[in-house]
């Protein structure tokens, strides 16, 4: 397993993942896609597309990294995608990505998603977040601030590693969000998220209330 993956799995909550991703950014795509056949972005984008949102919908990709999710969304016809991430190195890899002569992302914003997000309420029509809820990354309660930026009925699709999903009781927090009428949980599904490495994860599909 690559050193960066080991470093991430031993990250403590008090540590910032920013420098690990800055250092990994150059070979992140090759490492994950070619060596491990990382399929979480495809699973999440397929789930997002089930909502059949109009192609002009504005979408936020939280923890967009190098833009693998954005590329897949653009291939499915979405061209109003913004991305936010804490790592400048990862954002620099996402910036040049193009689909049909157009940049995949309209805006790429460097932001720490554990803090207040500088986006108005209900600004986006849908959100997707793949691989960013984990130890030393985002915790369940950071979802509140993300959901604030999504319009009523907007699709919300997450994908996360099972280890943190269980350890940090994400299912309990999802239920709490449902009780607070912040979202309606539609389904949670277990999937391995790398084809060449045993890595169970969870797809979470919801709709903003
Ligand atoms: C495993 S990568 C996933 C990237 C991309 N979504 C993908 O599937 O390839 C996790 C991403 O979350 C970002 N991240 C972690 N903690 C963050 C935070 N507090 N605020 C914003 N982004 C964060 C990292 O910089 C990294 O790009």
With helices defined by DSSP (H or I, 4 residues minimum), what is the helix count? 9
Q: Low-confidence spans: pLDDT under 50, at least 5 residues?
A: none
Bound molecules: S-adenosylmethionine
Shape label: globular
User: What string gives the helices and strands in order?
Assistant: HHHHEHEHEEEEHEHHEE
Helical percentage: 25-40%
Q: What fold name stands as the CATH topology?
A: Rossmann fold
Tell me the name of the CATH class: Alpha Beta
Structural classification:
alpha/beta
How far is it from the N-terminal to the C-terminal residue, by CA? Answer: 40 Å
Query: Average pLDDT value?
Result: 94
Q: Can you identify the CATH superfamily?
A: Vaccinia Virus protein VP39
How would you write the strand order of the largest sheet?
5-2-1-6-7-9-8
The count of domains is 1
Strand content: 15-25%
Largest sheet: 7 strands, mixed
CA radius of gyration is 16 Å
Secondary structure: number of strands: 9
Structure in a nutshell:
The protein has 209 residues and is of the alpha/beta class.
Describe this structure in words.
The radius of gyration is 16 Å and the shape is globular. It contains nine helices and nine strands. The protein has a seven-stranded mixed β-sheet, sandwiched between helices. A two-stranded antiparallel ribbon has the order 3-4. It has one domain: Vaccinia Virus protein VP39 (Rossmann fold). It starts with a helix and ends with a strand. The longest helix is centred in the N-terminal third of the chain and has 10 residues, at 40-49. With 209 residues, the protein is α/β, with parallel strands linked by helices. Bound molecules: S-adenosylmethionine.
